[in-house]
């Protein structure tokens, strides 16, 4: 067998959580800092890569967790996301301000327009402002944050957390024009901006055109529009009986918000089987914990309206059939089901919407009427216009928007400097060499056998009465320490130097899981089977 190659990318990929995080957050590094009570430093490690640690520590879709190695040795991964929140909750604000770049920054003479004020645009602003770019941000909302402000309810993301993290960025000298809907990309393009970034998200909620839709329009609401209206306090009530259509996280936010606005009997009705719903498992659990049943395998047939008043909806019962890896929903043949409702919220998906981009601008659009965007550089076919976040490739999540924004910011910088956009750095992959003796471990390396700790929640009787009362309380520091100890520190990787190894076996003696084997070389399949921890699965 040949020695393992020492390409930094290889080491990076072995830190599964970090590789799975779209923004490549150095997870084990911040977890060790939390275990050492260094919350401010842990926050900054996050802030550098994912920009919104307080927001994401509460709301991230956490693709890192299914990848976590701890989840391969027992049922549950390390609570990576909620540990991030611990850093955000316990950091010292003054300390954070000492770390983050403070303007005014020396100008580099370049000017960039950001259209949209959500996570993608804010992350571009955060990356470029300290480099001397003059940033102008336009958003139709009265404040920054985009979908983090309008679509995530306060009981999951308190306003103060959002304000703080948006503020860190806007205070870098960003020129903001809120309450400003950009009606024409041409108008912006004709101004003296060196580059333009479009981060307008996926602002259009899908509608459901089945019989009765128009007659009952007053009591049928598009989910994201309704959440926005609640966030800006234009809507404070909903009927007692509510149907929420859809199976994603927006549907979960709609149903839980309905419970707080007067909905006594709130039901989620979804076409797909429960297990295949798009909502994160924990979002479904939280909804059901608030006494919201999820009725799966029901396809909407019509809105039932009597004398102009919505009475409910009819559904057809279906069952899934799988052929060649594709799912079909076939009617069960049972009678249609009627479910009563005073209001219906439609949360069946979101779409991009670019009525404000002139089609004669020279920008290429694809067959779905989406701008053609390079997946590496995020550049459109108009060289100085870049896209990122949901506006680039359709709705995903905050952390993906941030990751794309970092790449777009790199491209904008290269473009403004007249350099090639292809010649770009890999995602952060630093190899830090540390010579460690057995007395030099800087963290507690005991392998704990604790199972994942659950995050405590506030009393349901209180949270259902106040839509702004945060449900999750977060780990206290003691529990966070114990949860942090579950991390296996996958970024600590020993590089054996064959020429220098004297086979003292010290590494074998201190390896906490006794997995190091000294044995003669051989063919790889044979060698794999002779290890103390045989690796026959690769
Ligand atoms: S055990 Fe720790 S370092 Fe390893 S994948 Fe999980 S969180 Fe990351
Ligand atoms: S930002 Fe999200 S995906 Fe990345 S490490 Fe944090 S919780 Fe995981």
Task: Give the key terms.
5-stranded parallel sheet; Fumarate Reductase Iron-sulfur Protein, Chain B, domain 2; 32% helix; alpha/beta; FAD/NAD(P)-binding domain; binds iron/sulfur cluster; 538 residues; 16 strands
Question: What is the fold's blueprint, element by element?
Answer:
Layout: H1 8-14, H2 16-20, H3 27-35, H4 39-50, H5 53-59, H6 64-67, H7 70-73, H8 80-90, H9 93-99, E1 111-115, H10 119-128, E2 134-138, H11 147-150, H12 159-170, E3 175-177, H13 185-189, E4 195-198, E5 204-205, E6 220-222, H14 223-231, E7 241-245, H15 249-260, E8 265-269, H16 281-289, E9 294-295, E10 298-306, E11 309-323, E12 326-331, E13 337-340, E14 343-346, E15 350-351, E16 385-387, H17 390-393, H18 398-416, H19 460-463, H20 477-484, H21 506-510, H22 524-529
Parallel strand pairs: 1-2, 1-4, 2-3, 4-16, 6-14, 7-8, 7-14, 8-9
Antiparallel strand pairs: 5-15, 10-11, 11-12, 11-13
Helix pairs in contact: 3-4, 3-8, 3-20, 4-8, 4-9, 5-8, 8-20, 10-18, 14-15, 15-16
The structure holds iron/sulfur cluster (2 copies).
